[in-house]
């Protein structure tokens, strides 16, 4: 179950040549995506986001509940490790799918349970797949935009 509700990833970025702090770049990107509770602890960042906040549907952190990011310097590159959690997404899609099943149960009977399962699997599954990809793109774009002012 934890693999379903958690995504881990690692990617590397070649060291840019100018001054700056990689965690500051990431923190700025998270702030621009309207994350809250961004906390820095050494070479790690922790943040909260999630679907239960007022942001547009294309927000790159919409599917993500909480996250941790760690930046390490290795062999001329920045290695960025992240861990993302999706508990609010599970709760929200379960609530909406369950509500839809209850509202249609009188008309459709037990078939509404099948529709509930299908709707839940599609909405949670697709959002769970899209979330880590959008997060990774947010980080890549923020480093690309700031490469002129970053040095590791």
Layout: helices, strands, pairs:
Layout lengths: L5 E9 L7 H11 L3 E6 L2 E5 L17 E9 L2 E9 L1 H22 L2 H36 L6
Antiparallel strand pairs: 1-5, 2-3, 3-4, 4-5
User: Strand fraction band?
Assistant: 25-35%
Text of the CATH class: Alpha Beta
Q: Which structural class is indicated by helix and strand composition?
A: alpha+beta
Tell me about the largest β-sheet: 5 strands, antiparallel
Stretches with pLDDT under 50, minimum 5 residues: none
Please trace the helix and strand order, writing H or E for each element: EHEEEEHH
Assign the CATH architecture.
2-Layer Sandwich
As a percent range, the share of helical residues equals: 40-55%
Indicate the overall shape.
Answer: elongated
Radius of gyration: 19 Å
The protein's oligomeric status is single chain
Q: Going across the major beta sheet, what is the strand order?
A: 1-5-4-3-2
In DSSP terms (H or I, runs of 4 or more residues), the helix count works out at 3
Mean pLDDT: 81
Summed up, the domain count is: 1
* CATH-defined fold name: TATA-Binding Protein
Task: State the end-to-end distance.
Answer: 37 Å
Labels describing this entry:
alpha+beta; five-stranded antiparallel β-sheet; elongated; single chain; TATA-Binding Protein
């Amino acid at each position: 179950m934890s693999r379903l509700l958690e995504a881990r990833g690692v990617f590397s970025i070649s060291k840019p040549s100018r001054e700056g702090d990689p965690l500051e770049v990431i923190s700025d990107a998270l702030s621009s995506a309207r994350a809250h509770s961004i906390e820095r602890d050494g070479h790690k960042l922790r943040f909260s986001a999630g679907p239960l906040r007022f942001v547009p549907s294309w927000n790159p952190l919409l599917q993500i509940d909480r996250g941790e990011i760690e930046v390490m310097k290795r062999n001329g590159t920045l290695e960025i490790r992240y861990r993302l959690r999706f508990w609010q997404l599970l709760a929200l899609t379960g609530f909406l799918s369950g509500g839809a099943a209850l509202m249609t149960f009188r008309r459709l009977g037990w078939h509404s349970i099948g529709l509930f399962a299908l709707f839940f699997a599609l909405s949670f599954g697709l959002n769970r797949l899209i979330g880590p990809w959008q997060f990774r793109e947010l980080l890549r774009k923020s480093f690309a935009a700031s490469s002129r002012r970053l040095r590791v």
